[in-house]
Amino acid sequence: MSAVIRQGHYQGLNHNGVTEYRGVPFARAPLGALRFKAPQPLPDSDSAQTADRYPQPSLQPNNPVMGIRESSEDCLYLNIWVPEGEGPFPVMVWFHGGGYLSGSISQPLYNGAALARSQNVVVVNAAYRLGAMGFADFTAVAPELDADTNLGLRDQVAALEWVRDNIDGFAGDAGQVTVFGESAGGFSVCSLLACPRARDLFQAAIVQSGGADFALAPKEVRKVSEAFVAGLPGEGSAAARLQQADGKAWIQAQNSAIKVLVDRGMRGTTPQFAMNFLPMVDGDLLPQLPIDAIAAGAAADKRLLAGVCRDEYHFFQYAGLLAGTTTMDKLRELDDAEILRRFERGLPGNGARAFDYYQSVVEPDPRRCRLDFMSAMESDRLFRVPTIRLLDAQTRHNPACWGFQFTWESEPFGVPLGACHVVDVPFVFGVTETQAGMYFTGGGEAARTLSGQVMDAWGAFARGHAPDWPRWGDGRQVRQFGPGEQTVALLDATGEQLWADIIPESQG
Among this protein's residues, is 333 annotated catalytic? Predict the structure, then answer.
């Protein structure tokens, strides 16, 4: 199967009922004079190309475990999967996770073939610039560059504009587009819900382990950007060093800049560590903090499906066990005074109160340790409470909102991580039997069955159908995928009260 659009003719790869197009560009390469500029449209062309090679991801450290062995500034590409048939098919546009610092549209976990084939949808994986490339602000530190801001978010909008203008050439329906993403991809979807320029580019959104408060005020972005520039080698002006820095120098400077503490969500109650290259509330592309914009009705016409994994933070809390940098015995040596210190660091002024609450509701798994208290709090701080705030805000304007929670437990290499961050992804893409999918799910018939249910739910939502569980507004209950009751609340009443002071509900 081939696709004909204004930028050329693309020949795809046919396999098992799906045509895959690898490395289709959606904007000019952001190189040279375009390094600090918003994405530029591609020229028209009648050239013919075989779309058979995955593109390199945005510049980042190599991570062979996740399939990242090379990266490049030349990164603005799409991977597209088209099912057999006449179409036009609904379109699902995926934005990958990775903390806005890493990730790739070509990771095996994100292969869209099974989702496209089983649901008769066109799946589009869209890349965007990461780290300082995508989310630094050089307007003050190097004004002579005339740099644009929010480049990563602008890339995402440009990808959606490309879909609007070209997806009919790939049997897609530009009037039936669902954006979906996990982690940083979920945060990105929330930013797009609040972005006026993206308003007419999609009709529905699925947010997996995301939230609408992962954005920064300009002064916070400036702190991170200044630290980044200070870490660049060479002499001369900031502009000169930014222009001359190669990929290695760029990543080294980025590694030093991620140590800067910032106020996530433009509040001081939940300081953000390590993940500090985030979309900026610039008054232009992103006029307001996304949760405030959504609470004010910015996405009133959008249907929403949003949820979490039950034990999100185990993925991070116990990562050292998988990396071989610590042991469970060492972690068990941490006393309550150290855990309380960590609570207070994450929730200034509220640490002791929160520690008391989590000791009352969490029973640490005997295979892990008392850091389960910390992990439960961070799961709520980073993901669960922001998801509740998102669903509450959007339901005020559109009742077509549903929540979910994954409870499938992951044990990579025998390390018990519970229903941790990323465990949902293999089920969504139908890759539970692949090497990457088995790492999180263990594979097997039960995983395949659950994956089929999840893909059916996501596909039906993309086709415009309501999920078969109650809307969020009808009792604030979510559907669970995995062991446990079919529907549950995400927080108990005491937890709701605790977090009301720490992450206040937005009034728009």
Answer: no
